Amino acid sequence: MSTVVLLLVTGLGLGAVYFLVSSGLSLIYGLMGVLNFAHGAFLTLGALIGWQTASLIGAGTWAGFLLSLLIGCLVGALLASLTEFVLIRPLYERHIEQVLVTVGLNLAAIALFEGIWGTDPVYIDGPAWMGMTTDILGAQTPNHLFITILIAVLVLVGMVVFLKKTRYGMIIRAGVENRSMVTALGIDVRRAFTLVFMIGGAAAGLGGVLASHYFGYVSPMLGGSLLIFAFIVTVIGGLGSLPGAAVASLLVGVLQQFTNYYWGFGDFVVIILLAVVLLTRPAGLLGRKAVATA
């Protein structure tokens, strides 16, 4: 029983990391129709700068950890907004060019990060409490998982509230439906779309910092490996559906943990799940034929 509980909680923690990475992808595609293959660069740079910030303040302190989360968010948001402004804005409705540009940016970013920080992973430490465990039905569960899960829930709620209840959220959704009409009303839709990229980048940067604590290390390749599963989660949940991304993240994380522990081929099972979903429900678990906004 304790093994099942531990696998379940660690799977939920892994799913929370996947959601933080995939939520930005889902949000950007759902509202703007942009498949952003440079998303992994936002995550990686947020994790690397966050780690260096925590090292300067004190890697084993709460101040260092919390500041690394904040810096990771800001770095991810800044890089994402620059990417949208410089590279994506001239290429709206030109999807092939978007893919080529974002793939190229991601490859260039990895090479740049390796040149600055090296190729070897750096093992990191968080506050002492995060390295401890809590007993749940006999399972000694790492405390850092609770923080990751809590932050993922807060991000999901915050994104949904932003889109549904705020003025800018309504402008973004209206701009997606009828951009020319919103522009005719004197509203700068481009600024709202940049904000969408900033939010997605902030979630990725936050996810990068938490992922580094989940896996215990940070490296220039961190974003590349997580980006693959983020795309899988986004497709399984339904392109453009935030609730779908949340459900798929938990499903993939838990399935991966259990399968890896008992049989050792969790990644293969996730690919099988992706194939089954694509064959039986091409729009995804909670997706629709029309692009969803939440």
TrEMBL record:
UniProt entry keywords in alphabetical sequence: Amino-acid transport, Cell membrane, Membrane, Transmembrane, Transmembrane helix, Transport
Biological classification of the source: Bacteria, Bacillati, Actinomycetota, Actinomycetes, Micrococcales
Transmembrane segments: 6-29, 41-59, 65-87, 99-124, 144-163, 192-215, 227-254, 261-279
Keyword flag Hydrolase: no
Location relative to the cell: Cell membrane
Similarity comment: family membership: Belongs to the binding-protein-dependent transport system permease family. LivHM subfamily.
Protein name per Swiss-Prot or TrEMBL: Branched-chain amino acid ABC transporter permease
CDD domains found in the cross-reference section: TM_PBP1_LivH_like
One Pfam entry name: BPD_transp_2
Annotated signal sequence range: none
Source organism superkingdom: Bacteria
UniProt membrane topology term: Multi-pass membrane protein
